[in-house]
């Protein structure tokens, strides 16, 4: 489906898109949003209209884009966080004129320059605080386990992540060809097959899917996946999986074929 509400909680993070969430976006842009709002109002009331038709048309296109991007970012469409960075760029376009006007006026006297310095300091401190308090996509213990795959796995073995939010980390630090939901050509499963693996009731079918690969697989399952999720329960309990660390299991398709 097109909406995140169609996915279980542990998969929602994967399908929002690997970018900051809307709440963090609000905090990071707390200084920008008022200027963007003023810029939009100035345009609507004719204060930003240009004698050049091309520029006026571009601003109108920017306003339409702003509305569309707000809808795509605010409502729970899949990958909606990916639209935030484009939304940010359009906000900056409308914020430039009011912000430049404010700076010009503040620089005319000492009190204004002091206020501008305080504004800049507040911007740096607030955004630094916002960044500092962000939760990591992968925790140190998880990263250590991913790195350990490079030590214990054979050069031709696969690494695998069941959630694409971990794909960059597993690909970069396991130093192995990585299987993941949809990014790399090593993946032999279609999206319906991944759904069978995630939600399906048949563990035999999960074995069939894993046996599509011809070599051992080191499967990383991160903290975001609850223990009661069907495929994690399968990995935890099936005798063909060997747990090599709290978040990594070894599966050899040749064992299950015997």
Give your account of this protein's structure:
With about 260 residues, the protein is α/β, with parallel strands linked by helices. It has twelve helices and five strands. It has helices spanning about 10-15, 20-30, 30-45, 55-75, 85-105, 110-130, 140-150, 165-175, 190-200, 205-210, 230-235, 255; strands at about 160, 180, 215-220, 240-245, 250. A hairpin with a 2-residue loop joins strand 4 (about 240-245) and strand 5. It is elongated. The two termini are about 40 Å apart. The mean pLDDT is about 85.
- Could you tell me the radius of gyration in angstroms? 25 Å
Which sequence of strands runs across the widest sheet? 2-1-3-5-4
Q: What is the mean pLDDT?
A: 83
The string of secondary-structure elements, in order, is HHHHHHHEHEHHEHEEH
| Estimated helix fraction | 55-70%
End-to-end separation: 38 Å
Which consecutive residue ranges, at least 5 long each, have pLDDT under 50? none
Largest sheet: 5 strands, mixed
Structural shape: elongated
Question: What's the number of extended β-strand segments?
Answer: 5
- Percent of residues in beta strands: 5-15%
Derived structural class = alpha/beta
Q: Count the helices. How many?
A: 12
């Amino acid at each position: 489906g097109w909406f995140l509400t169609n996915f279980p909680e542990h998969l929602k993070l994967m399908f929002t898109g690997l970018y900051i969430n809307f709440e963090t976006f609000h905090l990071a842009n707390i200084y920008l949003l008022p200027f963007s709002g003023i810029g939009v109002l100035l345009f609507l009331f004719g204060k930003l209209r240009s004698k050049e038709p091309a520029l006026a048309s571009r601003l109108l296109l920017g306003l339409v884009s702003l509305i569309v991007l707000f809808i795509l970012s605010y409502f729970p469409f899949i990958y909606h966080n990916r639209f935030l960075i484009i939304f940010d760029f359009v906000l900056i376009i409308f914020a430039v004129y009011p912000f430049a006007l404010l700076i010009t006026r503040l620089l005319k006297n000492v009190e204004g320059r002091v206020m501008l310095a305080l504004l800049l300091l507040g911007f740096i401190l607030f955004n630094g605080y916002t960044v500092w308090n962000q939760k990591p996509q992968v925790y140190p213990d998880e990263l250590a386990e991913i790195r350990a795959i490079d030590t214990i796995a054979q050069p031709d073995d696969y690494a695998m992540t069941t959630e694409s939010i971990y794909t960059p980390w597993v690909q970069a630090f396991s130093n192995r060809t990585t299987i993941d939901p949809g990014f790399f050509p090593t993946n032999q499963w279609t999206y319906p097959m991944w759904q069978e693996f995630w939600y399906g009731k048949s563990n035999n079918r999960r074995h069939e899917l894993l046996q599509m690969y011809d070599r051992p697989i080191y499967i990383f399952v991160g903290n975001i996946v609850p223990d009661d999720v069907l495929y994690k329960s399968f990995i935890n309990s099936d005798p063909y999986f060997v747990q090599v660390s709290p978040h990594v299991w070894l599966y050899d398709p040749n064992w299950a074929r015997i």
